């Protein structure tokens, strides 16, 4: 296999016309340049230079390799430029995973700021179930995931960055016997029929069930729903009550009332999980800052 460094030495000799001039340009001794050329000739199996007066000129093989050395040099320069752009955050690719309610509230404004600051960074954005995001970043399939804080500590090399705490509110039909109260004790809903808004078991459903257990009851789910908007429709129809995280109440059904809950107040903590090895990427650091800013809003 031809040595790339020796090819560049050959190119310097051919371009300058002599071993001595090439040595001066490269900062080598003439002896070191001659040794590199001799080693390259052994690799090529052909003479690469011939003497002409006090200088040298390339043989046919020397001209061929010099042309390829120029192409290789150009590619190396392009690679160095691309690497510098990546290191500075001007280019690259970020793989981001999120769950629906966090996506609606946090991701759009954060991505707008990212695109303004790093327009050449590509973003791979995908919606993932809340119970699956952490596994994505632990496997290395994602650079950043927005997730509800897990019960278990993440694997080594994964850092959790707190974004916000998202409390749950009670959603009742208009005209409900408790609708006139501004704040409800969670135990007051113990005997009500409930609308489940989380079909799949996961951290969001866990927070609701844990709070109800602390208030001394298990919800009697009479209706199953898989999203917050549909759940509000069932509540508005008088089929039950439910708890919905505040981020999930962006669009409220006109047939419901929303009330704060206490004793206890269910809360889900939302974090960004990132690989610590990725934190040196300027674009990723910029995205984290933008997510924190969006969370404050």
Task: Explain this structure.
With 297 residues, the chain is an alpha/beta fold. The chain folds into 3 domains: 4-88, Arc Repressor Mutant, subunit A (Orthogonal Bundle), CATH 1.10.10.10; 92-163 and 270-296, D-Maltodextrin-Binding Protein, domain 2 (3-Layer(aba) Sandwich); 164-268, D-Maltodextrin-Binding Protein, domain 2. It has 10 helices and 12 strands. The strands form 3 sheets. Strands 3, 4, 5, 6, 7, 10, 11 and 12 form an 8-stranded mixed beta sheet that branches. A two-stranded antiparallel ribbon has the order 1-2. Strand 8 (193-196), helix 8 (203-214) and strand 9 form a beta-alpha-beta unit. Helix 1 crosses helix 3 and helix 6 runs antiparallel to helix 10. The radius of gyration is 32 Å and the shape is rod-shaped. The chain starts with a helix and ends with a helix.
CATH C-level label of the largest domain: Alpha Beta
Number of domains: 3
Low-confidence stretches: none
What structural class results from the helix and strand content? alpha/beta
Query: Might you state the CATH topology name of the largest domain?
Result: D-Maltodextrin-Binding Protein, domain 2
- Give the ordered list of helices and strands: HHHEEHEHHEHEEEEHEHEEEH
The oligomeric state of the chains shown is single chain
Total beta strands: 12
* Shape label: rod-shaped
* Cα gyration radius (Å): 32 Å
């Amino acid at each position: 296999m031809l040595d790339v460094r020796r090819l560049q030495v050959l190119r310097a000799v051919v371009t300058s016309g002599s071993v001595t001039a090439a040595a001066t340009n490269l900062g080598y001794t003439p002896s070191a340049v001659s040794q590199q050329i001799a080693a390259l000739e052994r690799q090529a199996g052909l003479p690469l230079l011939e003497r002409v007066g006090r200088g040298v000129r390339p043989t046919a093989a020397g001209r061929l390799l010099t042309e390829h050395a120029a192409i290789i040099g150009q590619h190396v320069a392009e690679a160095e430029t691309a690497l510098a752009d990546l290191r500075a955050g001007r280019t690259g690719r970020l793989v981001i995973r999120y769950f629906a309610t966090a996506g609606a509230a946090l991701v759009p404004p954060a991505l707008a700021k990212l695109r303004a600051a790093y327009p050449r960074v590509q973003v791979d954005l995908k919606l993932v179930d809340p119970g699956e995001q952490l596994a994505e970043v632990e496997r290395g399939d994602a650079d950043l995931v927005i997730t509800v804080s897990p019960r278990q500590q993440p694997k080594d090399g994964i850092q959790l960055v707190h974004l916000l705490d998202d409390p749950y509110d009670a959603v009742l039909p208009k005209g409900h016997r408790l609708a006139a109260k501004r704040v409800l004790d969670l135990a007051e809903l113990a005997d009500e029929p409930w609308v489940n808004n989380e079909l799949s078991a996961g951290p969001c459903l866990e927070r609701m069930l844990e709070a109800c257990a602390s208030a001394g009851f298990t919800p009697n789910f009479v209706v199953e729903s898989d999203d917050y908007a549909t759940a509000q429709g069932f509540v508005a129809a008088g089929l039950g009550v439910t708890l919905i995280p505040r981020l999930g109440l962006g669009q409220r059904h006109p047939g419901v009332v929303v009330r704060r809950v206490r004793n206890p107040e269910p809360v889900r903590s939302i974090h960004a999980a990132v690989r610590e090895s990725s934190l040196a990427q300027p674009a990723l650091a910029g995205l984290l800052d933008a997510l924190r800013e969006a969370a404050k809003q």
